[in-house]
């Protein structure tokens, strides 16, 4: 605290206003602030919606970090288990590019590094969905500048890339006659597109509808470029040249064959050939996916291709009142609902607004505004307005405007369409990346240059400041104050490691030379308590008879969040307190080194949960339980982390004991035990 105050004082002397990390993280994260304090860049803006959602999205990021124990962390798409995830990890690679692009701004590099190791390791599953994982790793490198971490995956990236060249998969692959990749829309994580609905004659569209899509081909373009760039870093010119050529070939073919000049848009062509649709015919309408080529900088900088952007803001085309439509109202089956879970509508891509694709389009628009210059059809004002509209979509009108991002939305009303039990705080999109690389404008680069080009609209955004942004081993701050009334200095200011290095009276592009340095080393404590499979050790048990086995197991399954929605309750609940002591035990089944623990307790007045008054930790090696030696008990924290340390000891079992408050339940979200 006093150290931080000292820093703030120092920067006032330097003429810059620093944000108060302590105050901001406690405002947004309550008792869980400690997790965020040193991990996230701070951000404030005259647009409070964008600011609030920025912090909410870090909460979503944190909640979706699943600790796998020895395998480190991965990011999940759903908080709850879903039947189509890869077990036991709960892996779904379709969201990986978003996860990596969000994670690249986390000051704790562990999350994106562990995740990349997992995605390219023996337990990954690279063909479950279309993917741009190599691009995600490359985007991470652009921010942290650590070559060795990114190039470590070069061989695996090439293997995965080659795998997409197959003609043997039924859900995606390469067409050797057309030199293009194709994908089943469901395997593109976008069921019920024009291709899949029309291939069924309008009767369905969940599966089928294989098509040459702008998405998969742009992803492979981006993956090829990422591989080429990483190979260059490693000095492997053969691989670099080969993948550079493949990227160029994909780009040329996409432009030559997926650009439909009648629609002035990149659209699918059918791979499927049946009684309803013909191989190689174009689909009959525009889809939002037609902007994905710009997400990955594929199209040439020409006036012709730029025409696609005039559809974006047209209320008869993509622009819904509350969100971007995935295809246009002119399509015969626009918004026709085909699939339900019970009475609830299921996921479809024939009109609904999807944060997933809104993110891709905003990234694409950011690229267009930053380094394409052949159109003024869209502007920074549009970027700012669309980002704001997207921010507002995070507020759930069915929950009094609470921040709770669900799967997809009615583009006219902004109400969730798919807000099922599995859907709260859904993580298949980005926002932090849009704020930092777009709105604030840190355009991450491979060379030793810091480049800032904010896409905020200076007419409506009177101030913003982002600081503690990790970049090439430095801390960057970027500040804008239109009138000088908020921070005391008018204009744009760039700081590197707390020193002002560049200024401009207007919101314009600035570049500063910046030699890279190594970021701080990553700490990787390994939780020995974690078990993903409730039938295998370590095993959890409790003193309360007939407790739900899966709920008990949930307290050692590596998932921590404190969201209050009952459908995503996470952990084991005690009965209401009656004065008797309860315990929660982890049986390692063999001697295991232990030295500390983190307890996550949920609290919610209206649901009747609180932390206990006191707790203790006991271990057992032989016959009897004893309190750990040298123990230092941290204060009990509700909806945050309670930390305990003890003298390292090898034990077979460890347990936490506590007495729930009278009439009140305790929910143990997670009991993590670490070795020394
Ligand atoms: C859990 O482990 C059991 C026993 O090894 C195995 O049969 C089961 O498939 C595993 N479950 C998951 C979800 O991996
Ligand atoms: C994929 O197939 C294309 C067309 O045959 C070829 O040019 C390319 O080299 C292949 N890529 C890999 C990695 O095998
Ligand atoms: C664009 O696609 C439509 C089919 O949806 C087709 O009728 C039209 O000919 C295509 N335009 C061009 C220039 O190929
Ligand atoms: C776009 O930028 C390029 C490269 O800086 C420049 O040569 C060209 O004249 C610009 N075109 C327009 C229309 O401004
Ligand atoms: C008191 O609570 C404990 C643990 O929750 C339970 O096992 C026990 O049956 C309760 N006792 C009474 C008298 O209700």
TrEMBL record:
<dbReference type="InterPro" id="IPR012341">
    <property type="entry name" value="6hp_glycosidase-like_sf"/>
</dbReference>
<dbReference type="Pfam" id="PF22422">
    <property type="entry name" value="MGH1-like_GH"/>
</dbReference>
<dbReference type="InterPro" id="IPR054491">
    <property type="entry name" value="MGH1-like_GH"/>
</dbReference>
<keyword id="KW-0732">Signal</keyword>
<dbReference type="GO" id="GO:0016798">
    <property type="term" value="F:hydrolase activity, acting on glycosyl bonds"/>
</dbReference>
<feature type="domain" description="Mannosylglycerate hydrolase MGH1-like glycoside hydrolase">
    <location>
        <begin position="93"/>
        <end position="429"/>
    </location>
</feature>
<protein>
    <submittedName>
        <fullName>Six-hairpin glycosidase-like protein</fullName>
    </submittedName>
</protein>
<dbReference type="GO" id="GO:0005975">
    <property type="term" value="P:carbohydrate metabolic process"/>
</dbReference>
<keyword id="KW-0326">Glycosidase</keyword>
<keyword id="KW-0378">Hydrolase</keyword>
<feature type="signal peptide">
    <location>
        <begin position="1"/>
        <end position="18"/>
    </location>
</feature>
<dbReference type="InterPro" id="IPR008928">
    <property type="entry name" value="6-hairpin_glycosidase_sf"/>
</dbReference>
